[in-house]
Amino acid sequence: MHQRLSEGLDNCVVLLRDLKRQGYAGSYTILKDYLKPFRLRNQVTATMRFETKPGEQAQVDWGSVKYMTPDGRNHRLCVFVMVLGWSRAIYVEFANHADIATFIRCHLNAFEALGGMPEQCLYDNAKTVVLKRDENGVRQWNPRLLDFALRLGFEPAVCRPYRAQTKGKVENGVKYVKRNFWPSVKFTDREDLNRQACEWVFGVANVRIHGTTGERPGDRLSVEQKSLRPFPGWGKVAVFVREQRTVGRDGYVNWENAYYGVPSQYAGKSVEVQCVGSMVEIRHAEARIIVHPKALRRGQFLTAPGQWDGLQQSNSRPRREPVALQIASVEVERRSLSVYERLAEAVGGR
Fold it and tell me: ∠116-121-127 over CA atoms, to 5°?
């Protein structure tokens, strides 16, 4: 236990789970009492609790977690967390980036997993939500998020600046993921990690007795789902999960640490990349160019059939070879050296 404490893990639930794997037969209370002197927590400050009706609000936030690769190097992942305000049901997804395309895709995955959409989503003031505020405090929404919210029919709302505790349900949700799920995780890739996160959500997080409601979030979710708006289906929201990329000179598109080939005539052009299940679709000007299977490893190259067909004829030009210039020779009169000697003597005599 002291080794785990030195690693920053002081969550009694996780420690008890690890101890039981090693044969510990004691109770949670004994463990908690023993660890109490060693657990250092920030002083709790008072705040007003704000409760919502079923289906009224979800709170959304990003977190960041650290992991180590087999070569001993440390890296970070982003973790998307959505919590329904009434049921406290949670959705968790890990991503490489916290950009707007990933943010929207995580929303859609969460709406599908939770069984519908709330009337409102509450955020902090991140750039994926609010680009800036003017001198009067009027917010400028991220246009992609605003368009997404208006088309799906939910209201985006933000906390007051520097008042993140306004969305305390999801703040606690992010902490819960970091303290309960993350310390025991061992994963091979991001897909494997998200499978484990899904199992944890439905097998641990949403079936525990919640400290505030005194009920299981999963049981309350079955009630709250009756007040959620139906998820519109992926066919109607596909445009929101496309990501802009530029095709390289070699005809490959870099997406999610892998390279996907397109016909060479698209080199240098902007395309849209979309992941649909296990397939990656690449489009240009609303037309589908090609569909690839999703790469299985980092740095993998997937070449398109006929990717370089016609490249020599259409793109290559004969290179001009450097040319030097030869000029006409000038005939110079040749004289005997004695002429110059007589001339020098005449000049010296003067």
Answer: 130
Angle at 347 between CA 342 and CA 350, to 5 degrees: 130
pLDDT for 207: 96
Q: Which of 233, 234, 83, 246 is nearest to 172 (CA)?
A: 83
Tell me which amino acid residue 35 is. Answer: L
CB atoms within 10 A of CB 263: 19
pLDDT tens for 168-218 read 788 999 999 999 999 989 999 999 999 999 999 999 999 999 999 999 999
Cβ count near 144 (within 10 Å) = 15
The dihedral formed by the CA atoms of 184, 186, 189 and 191, expressed in degrees to the nearest 10: -50
Angle CA(20)–CA(24)–CA(26) in degrees, nearest 5?
110
Contacting residues for 217 by C-beta, under 8 A, at least 6 apart: 84, 87, 88, 89, 90, 205, 206, 207, 208, 210
For the CA atoms of 329, 333, 337, 341, the dihedral, rounded to the nearest 10 degrees, stands at -120
Q: What is the pTM of this model?
A: 0.67
Average pLDDT over residues 325-332: 70
Please check whether residue 182 is in contact with residue 166, taking contact to mean a CB–CB distance below 8 angstroms. Answer: no
Backbone angles phi, psi at 146, to 5 degrees: -65, -45
**CA–CA distance, 144 with 146 (Å, rounded to integer):** 5
Fold of 50-235: Nucleotidyltransferase; domain 5 (3.30.420)
Domain residue ranges in the chain: 1-41, 50-235, 242-310
Q: How far is CA 73 from the centre of its chain?
A: 20
DSSP string, 34-66: HHGGG---PPP---------TTTEEEEEEEEEE
Structure confidence by residue, pLDDT tens digits, 51-84: 789 999 999 999 999 999 999 999 999 999 999 9
| Dihedral of the alpha carbons of 99, 146, 177, 175, in degrees to the nearest 10 | 100
